[in-house]
Amino acid sequence: MKELYHPSLFPLSEGINSEDYVVATYMVAGGAQADIVAKSAALAIEQSSGSWYAIPGETAEIRARSAAKVIGIYSVPNYELIAQLPKDQPRYYVLRVAFPWINFYDNIPLMLSSVIGNIASMPNLKLLDLEFPESYLLQFKGPKFGIDGLRKLMNIPERPILNNMIKPCTGITPSEGAELFYNASVGGVDWIKDDELIAGSPAFSPLEKRVKAYMEAAKRADVEKGEMTLFTANVTDEIVRLRDNAYRAIEAGANAIMVNVFGIGFSALRMLAEDPNINVPICVHTCYGGAQTVAPNQGMSTEVAQKLIRLCGGDMSLNVAPSAKFNALQEKFVRTWQIGYSQMSHIKQTFNLVGGGVTPGMVPYLMNTLGNDIIIGVGAGIHGHSMGPKAGATAFRQSIDATMKGIDLTEAAKTQPELAAAIKTWGIYGVDDYDKLYDLES
């Protein structure tokens, strides 16, 4: 028998104790005559107990305990006959490989090194999903607040939460940012965050000064509008400064913090989320994530990334909207939301922050697609409003209110000049040509 065909490497899923394994699902491609069975076994061994060549030290006992197991090989299309095979075209497969999690325990970097480590350099291989058993999930705390906790904190029981990121993105002083903050907040924004491009404590905007200036603006706005404003300070930095930044931001008054998770790593997010002294919500920005997720045949899927964000404690996480600035596929948009929202053992939900070129004219589409349990994230759609950021925020609240009441935006705009001005500038999604708005997409 060929060693790489041995049944011990290919148990049925019914033949393993599912609580002992994290299951990885991959899409792979190979030539028309590729030996996908042997290739799958080689992949599993390479990423667990063995190497590219048989080594004497990999005993039967070690392989039984630590080798990954191939529990599914599926050709797409599912050919049965040699005569059906395409000529001079690659064949595509879905592989399911079960990794004994004793190999990497709750060590996220080691887990990623196992499931998408060396094989990430193979052409035409993408990690589509990771399935975690209850026994593995119990090692993680997940988000401190989640959707329910954030709604209680902000006293917003039903409607979508309106978020704004300060624009200009970077280069502004604390006093300049505070003025923009105040105008957006008093216009109806619930939650304002630093942009992903300003973080830590740059010379032009020291962390404590920025937080204190913005929180003072929040207090002024809150008195006027009778609502609470959440401020998220971006504490992203070198890892040795990360926890200290979070402590300093909270001590200065920030009632939430943010990290650029692909810059700092999932484990750094987990470190902050599981710190008992960090008792504020954590927003996760996914910039740079496209370098790992966007390639259709390489890297890992957005679904995997969002699952890890939730596992490691992200209370809110960015989800790029379709037909906006980066034109995400609707199925990816919906699946990313579902991964934050659906049941995951004891792990609380992650609130989906829908962003990337959102305007008031997109609100009905977003709410009709995903419901009210979303955060509508807006930058230029507020600060670029022709009547100013206060009116820009008001236009979004008007759009949200109209959609919740089932009123068409065109009708609502007849008596609401802020909404009317936004629609005149940007249009309504599904009615007007949205793609013309975004130079990045074109």
From TrEMBL:
Domain Ribulose bisphosphate carboxylase large subunit ferrodoxin-like N-terminal: 18-136
InterPro entries (UniProt xref): RuBisCO (IPR033966), RuBisCO_lsu_C (IPR000685), RuBisCO_lsu_C_sf (IPR036376), RuBisCO_lsu_fd_N (IPR017443), RuBisCO_lsu_N_sf (IPR036422)
GO MF annotation, one: magnesium ion binding
Single biological process term from Gene Ontology: carbon fixation
Signal peptide span: none
Domain Ribulose bisphosphate carboxylase large subunit C-terminal, residue spans: 146-426
Family: Belongs to the RuBisCO large chain family.
Designated name of the protein: Ribulose 1,5-bisphosphate carboxylase
